[in-house]
Description:
With 728 residues, the chain is α/β, with parallel strands linked by helices.
Amino acid sequence: MVNEPLPADGIGGLPQPVGGGASLSRNVPPASQAWRGSIVRKEAFTLRDLLIVAFYHRWLIIFSALLPLIVAGTAAFLTDRQYTADGLLMVLVNREVAGNQNVTDTGPAMLSIEGLKSVHSEVEIITSAGVIRQTVEKIGMERLYPRIIDGRLGGLLPPVPEERRMERAIELFRDDLRANVESDSNVVRITYRHPDRALAIRTVDTLIDFYQAHRRAIFDNPRASFLTTEVARFRQQLEATDAEIQKVKIDHGVIDIEQDRALAANQVDSVVQRHRQVREREAAIVAQLAEAERQQAGLPKQVFDFRQRSDGGANDDDRNVLTRLQMERERLSALYAPTFPGLTEVDQKIEAMRRSIRSRADQKTFVTDREVRNPAVSFVSNMILSLRVERDALGNQLKELEAQKGRAEQRMDEVRLADARLIELHRQRDVLDDAYRQYVKRAEAAKIDEDAAKLRSSNVRLVQRGDAPITGRDMRIPFLIAGLSGGLLLGAAMGAFAAWLRGSFIMPSEAERSLELPALVTFPAARDNFEDPEARHALAHLAAVLLDTSIDYRRLRVFQLVAVSQDENKRPLARALAEEFAVGRGLRTLLLDLGETRNRGQLPVGPQDDNLAVASSGVPQLWLAADGTRSALGNLRTPIIKAQRRIEQLRNEYDVVVLCGPTNGFSPVTQRLASIVDANILVVRSEVTRSPAAIRLRDQILDAGGGLLGFVFTSRKYYIPRWIYRWL
Length: 728
């Protein structure tokens, strides 16, 4: 533990003993539930965590935040103060399509949608290419857009080719021009934006003048005489068609063809439906009559009513008594021994009841038979008489329906002929009527146009000529504000994205949330040699955690340090932890390194066996064993029972055994030893250990049946300045 007062996550909490009801974190396979570590409390994401991530990715965030600022600064440098000149036109929408106000009170009334279309059509005329081209030619391209001729960015970029200058000028003019209809009104506002205020006002006035001239040329189209002749011709055709329609109705006796056609069809349908119903009823009556006569011939005069037979006698309750006695015997046999006198008495009663039941087997039974007169004979006779009367009545009804059907079909044919002729005549009349109405409207509109030819623009009134405010619009400050806001948003987004893509840990809390294991102790960066006092204090705390934890009230004595790779400083940590047990606690400690092999002949003499070479380390109470590949623990061919006995032997010979597994944490040796040691400790190094690999190693250890006490976080860096920590 480092004596750093500022961060709050230096040392994880003590794990709870298994006997106290502790459990592993979630998402652990069921096979590993023999022993579980302490419950990990997931803390919320705090402001301090956010600042740590921000300072870790500070260069990416700063670079991302500067990009919008640079773009906004460039745009502010290249942007000039703009003056917007505007003019107002009012479009008068009245009854006449021609648009002359109060010329006549006749003609159809215009709908509101037509008036809106008329206003928008004026906007399209204002922004047409012809009006814009004339305005640009009148003002001068070199005055409106000098960069087209002189080049852009002060001559750094070449000018636009001469053959494309007018098209480019029209594009730029349309970008600066706005012609919009004011909300809920028929007023059109024309605005033009330019750095020169006087030139912007002049451009708006010139555009309005060319628009009015162009509009007069569009509406100049005399056609009243032709339309008047066509109106007279269509009137004569309509009168002839109406006379022929009346003649057809009189000849066929039709008042309203739609109602007559519906009445004739309904009459035919009604007769047909009644005819079908009568036919169906007649067929049913005939079938019922035949069936009734057939069944009447086979009915007997008398029928059997019922028969009653009984084999029981009066007061016959022997079987019920026998059942109760058998139940009583089962109850007594369950409570007493077979020699109990009560059982003998119950058996005698059961035998007596059985003899009584057998004696009643020859008892006589009683039989009663009864016959009555058959009631179906009278019912069938009455039914046959009723069916014969109804059959005769249905025959007379069918004759009348045949006559009605003939008359209805004859009327239907007459209406059908009249309807076909009237449909053709009405179709001709509808076409003539539509054409007549349209020509009447157009003739009236054309007459009004010709009468008001010299006042064609009277329905478009100029409300305001071009004018612009004295103070223009400066977009430099909004660009800078937008760049600052965009920089902050982009920097925050890039920081969040980089944190999401980062697979390593920079804080113990991240490892706790990802691994769902408690952090036992944290070692700051530049102290991985574990020699300074703060590192020794953290080692003492780790040793206390390991020695104070018990499994089923048995203290932990054999520990295995596991890590994803050799970059986690697992060996220096194991050596420092072993020295803490030996020197700081005075315990006989063995450091078993299964990832390193030494020559047996060069080892000093010490406690050893045929499979494991043990040597003195020069530190009191500390012995080293590094011949892991040839030992019983490092050899995969060694039976697991033998490996367990070897661990038990080491537990008897030493007070504490620290195992440093192979370099690769995913080694089968690590997984094998995980289930026979007292506890496993995962070593996680800041900015080195990747989350997927650590989670995979955790799951493999748990799947192998091992218990994970927690993890040790090494090389912890503090990215936030110290003066900020005091406010968090």
